[in-house]
Amino acid sequence: MSALPPTDLGGALAWLAAALAAWQPATANATLDLTPLGPAALTELDDRLGRGEVAVVAGEEQIHECRLPGVWRHHRPPRLEVGPAPTLPAVAPSPTPLPVRPADLMNGEAILAEITTRATAYRPGDASHQIHLSHLPLTPGDRAYLDARLGERPLRIHILGYGETHITAAALPHVWHIRHANAAGQTILSTLEIGALPEVVRATPEDLADAAREAATMASE
After folding, report:
1. Chain segment 154-182, per-residue pLDDT in tens
2. Are 9 and 44 in contact (CB under 8 A)?
3. Among 10, 125, 131, 158, whose CB has the most other CB atoms within 10 angstroms?
4. How far, in Å, CA of 20 to CA of 217, rounded?
């Protein structure tokens, strides 16, 4: 990969093919500054790479996965990133007033205690842990209590597939609220995940290998 950012479409595609070919599970993500590309070349690059299933809004930053899995397009500033998941900017929690204790609170406090303990103990590289809220006997008060106590950050992830998946970052670090919806838009599974980033967002090594082959073809055309 060249030390200087490419200034044309061919150079950007060549960099992408080389970055994907060099990727290994233990390596850090590779990034390419797209600022040197002119508007026309940047538009053509976006057309060639297309859009995948994952879109991220983190504060003022917008990121989407390209048609090639494991290739992430950042918009502010414009750049490409190659790796299983994009690097997310730090965003501060949104102000949330402390909740009034609901009259029908039953299991919310115990679940919150488990989440807090696991999130506090989490270290990079640890396996993620999921709590399937849909499978627990929760009252409306439990759900409202958990939502209010966990709070949120302005970091949202939207995944399109057979249905839709909406992910919100909690104010408590390493905690994510994941809601899976069916094709009719009805929530069919609500989960809290403690970890660096929900596994459903991450591209697999097989995905990146497929992307490397396709990028090599694109660069040679």
Report:
1. 999 999 877 899 999 999 999 999 999 98
2. yes
3. 131
4. 12
> In terms of Cα–Cα distance, which of 188, 210, 189, 206 is closest to 198?
189
Q: Give the global pTM.
A: 0.88
Q: Which two tokens stand for residue 151?
A: 């709070």
How much is the CA Rg of the chain, to the nearest whole Å? 20
What is the C-alpha to C-alpha distance for residues 6 and 36, in angstroms, rounded to an integer? Answer: 7
Cα dihedral value 160, 165, 171, 172, nearest 10 = -120
Q: For 6-10, 19-23, 53-57, 112-116, which range has the lowest pLDDT when averaged over its residues?
A: 6-10
Q: How many residues does the chain have?
A: 221
Neighbours of 169 (CB within 10 A): 24
Q: Locate tokens 């992408």: which residue?
A: 16
- Distance, in Å, from the CA atom of 12 to the CA atom of 200, rounded to the nearest integer, reads 28
Q: Per DSSP, which regions of the chain are E strands?
A: 30-33, 54-58, 61-65, 71-75, 78-82, 129-132, 155-160, 164-169, 175-181, 187-194
Query: Largest Cα–Cα distance of the chain, in whole Å?
Result: 65
Domains of the chain (ranges plus CATH)?
9-88+203-220 (3.30.1370.140), 108-196 (3.30.1370.140)
